[in-house]
Amino acid sequence: MKLLQWHQFNHGLTDPTAIAQRLQSYAKEKQPIRGKAMHAHIIRTIPHINIFIQNHLLNMYAKCAHFILAFKLFGKMPQKNLISWTTLISALSQHAQFQESLNFFTQMRIYGENPNEFALSNVIQVCATTGSLKQGKGLHSLTIKLGFGSELFVGSNLADMYGKCGELDDGCRVFEEMEVRDQVSWTAMIVGYTKNGSFLQAIDAFLRMSLEGVSADQHVYSSVLGACGGLKLSKVGKCFHGSVFKAGFEQNVVVGNALVDMYSKCSDMGSAVLLFQLDSKRWNVVSCSSLIDGFVEREEIWEAVSTFNESRQWGIEPNEFTFSCLLKASASQASLELGRQLHAQVIKSSFDVDPFVCTALIDMYGKCGLLSFSLQIFNSFNNPTEFVFNTMVGVLAQHGCGREAIDIFDKMVSNGMKPNEVTFVSIFTACSHAGLVSEGMYYFFSIEEKYNVIPTEEHYACIVNMLGRAGRLKEAKEFIRKMPFEPNAFAWCSLLGACRIHGDIEGGKLAAEKLMELEPENSGTRVLLLNIYAKAGRWEDVKTMRKSMREGGVKKVPGFSWLEVNNMTHVFGAEDFSHPMRRKIYEKLESLLNEMREAGYVPNTDSVLWNVEEGLKERLLSHHSERLAVAFALTILPVGKPIIVMKNIRICTDCHVAIKFISKIVERDITVRDNSRFHHFRDGSCSCGDYW
Predict the structure, then answer these.
(1) Range with lowest mean pLDDT among 391-395, 486-490, 516-520, 533-537
(2) What are phi and psi of 318, to 5 degrees?
(3) What pLDDT digit, counting tens, does each position of 589-614 carry?
(4) Are residues 574 and 655 in the same domain?
(5) Does one domain contain both 606 and 634?
(6) Residue range 658-672: average pLDDT?
């Protein structure tokens, strides 16, 4: 019925200009049905349809995204001109039909039609969107050949294309060669700089733009605020905030989000929160996620969780970035209870198939000690991305699963993904913890030739660590000597730790001296050297070192352990009597010690750094923080609940032996994460195989 009415509406319309105007109206208002009625009317009333009307019909179908009819009409056109081709190319790119747009551009060139600046700009935009740098460079050459190099619109799109493809130098050259630069070209450069992490250049470009009298829009302000956040320049960001206010963009949602993000990244949470309090319209998923991320970076986890809960009350649904931030917080604090609650919400929100959220879940469970959960999530993911693979390799490395890490690495490579610097740090760490020296050296010597990754200082330090752990101290020292750059603190620290384990006093002194030059305030260096002297019974050297530390104001970082029970974190130090359940904890310790002695446990007092009687040494060992934490867990946690204890320094040899005995006596799995790796104790043995 409506079609008949539109036929009647078009009745008597034969003037080409009037027809064209009506078709333009239908295209603008996205009314393809009326457009079809007009097409039918044209066929009935005009015997020979000229190219002028055909192009308007083509434009109407293309802008209404009726590409099947547009292609059909285009194919039947006896003549096609530049407007015909440009119309289709532009519409296809605007409707994200990128490959089709490029195909039509190629066909136009084969047809013998030279593109104008509009057709060129559209396909350059396609290359920018799809990251097709090679095709973009080809179009740049064609632009110069056809004499459009000085066209403002084309130049702006070329600069934008190079920026989005990560070729900022080429983008800068195009930009600087432009005779005239407008807001679009400046915006392309500033956005390109920020997206590629060239924050100083973004700020500099903004200042130059202002000096030339070009006004900024919301995209420019958002990008330059992002640059301030990236550089953590809170004062500069506040200056730009003033410019935003003067320009009248403070109420703009995009700019408002950028302001919150900038203050959050600058760790100025007071200003970020104030922006929320001043305007409730700023409550959206982007700004809330920025605020949550800011709290997470400051390790104010419960503030982040509170913001998350409040945003849900406002009806704001979290996105993948929100969940990734909060899961990162759970991982950093080893807060398993929070992580599990978030996992439940992730599943409910259907984000468990998102690669970024999946990566965060794998990392969270791995850092909370539940390796089996990490593997379960990884294995359930149909098409793991590079990030998912890298995270899984890293988690396996933390847990000392060298063979398994290599298997995942091989699977990653066989899936056509290229390992990067982070991948190899994880692989070398995995080989180090598992004693896979041959495998680690193979990957090191093939890293550049086979995988096209240039080894960094961190990679070299990992190899020193691997050789040192294996007791191959001579090779480790030689490896350090032959490094192409000065060894970093991690390399010397790795050698020092190895010398402590294997009792190399002279090697330990050398490593300690080098380490103290690099990190004079690091108390850990002196403590490791104290360990070496104490183990060798050189108590005068221990006394001298302690005196030196006192005089230099260097304090030993106290060891402490913690675990989470019912969303509460319980922290223990050595000889700690501050816990409300201290009586039950020490009774449990005494009971366990008696059972351990009956089972054959003999204390190893080598790790006690004081020249005191053996009985006192044994008492000091029995009250180490990790044992207090384990005793508390056994007192309060029901059977079946995982016991996961975190420790800020390396677990001592005697506690490692003691917890193996405890796991067998109480028939419970116990996990301890020290500052090096995870130890999974079960039935009297540890996953590290006593190699750590």
Answers:
(1) 533-537
(2) -70, 155
(3) 999 999 999 999 999 887 776 767 87
(4) yes
(5) yes
(6) 96
Q: Is the predicted pLDDT of residue 8 greater than 60, yes or no?
A: no
Global confidence as pTM: 0.79
Asked whether residue 596 is domain-assigned, the answer is yes
Q: Which residues lie across from 572 on neighbouring strands? A: 561
Which of 491, 526, 551 is a domain's end point?
A: 551
CA angle 643, 646, 651 (to 5 degrees): 105
Structure tokens at 638: 């029901």
- 607 and 501 together in one domain: no
SS3 of residue 678 by DSSP? strand
- Give the phi and the psi of residue 572 in degrees, each rounded to 5: -130, 140
Q: Phi and psi of 560, rounded to 5°?
A: -145, 155
| Residue 470 lies inside a defined structural domain of this protein | yes
| Per-position DSSP letters for 23-43, written without gaps between them | HHHHHHTT-HHHHHHHHHHHH
589 and 545 fall within a common domain: no
pLDDT per position as a tens digit, 228-241: 999 999 999 999 99
Task: Let me know how long the chain is.
Answer: 692
Do 567 and 545 fall within a single domain?
no
If residue 647 lies in a helix (H) or strand (E), which one and from where to where? strand 643-647
Domain-located, residue 579: yes
Q: How far apart are CA 657 and CA 618, in angstroms?
A: 13
Within this chain, do residues 546 and 656 fall inside the same structural domain, yes or no? Answer: no
Rounded-to-integer distance, Cα 42 and Cα 55, Å: 13
Count of structural domains within the chain: 2
Q: Which long-range contacts (CB under 8 A, 24 or more apart) does 494-498 make?
A: 494/461, 494/464, 494/465, 494/468, 495/464, 495/468, 496/525, 496/528, 496/529, 497/465, 497/468, 497/528, 498/465, 498/467, 498/468, 498/469, 498/471, 498/473
Q: Are 53 and 42 in contact (CB under 8 A)?
A: yes
Q: How far apart are CA 20 and CA 607, in angstroms?
A: 91
Alpha helical stretches, state H, 503-648: 505-518, 523-535, 539-551, 582-598, 614-622, 625-636
Residue with tokens 């949470």: 269
Give the residue numbers spanning the domain of 496. 456-551
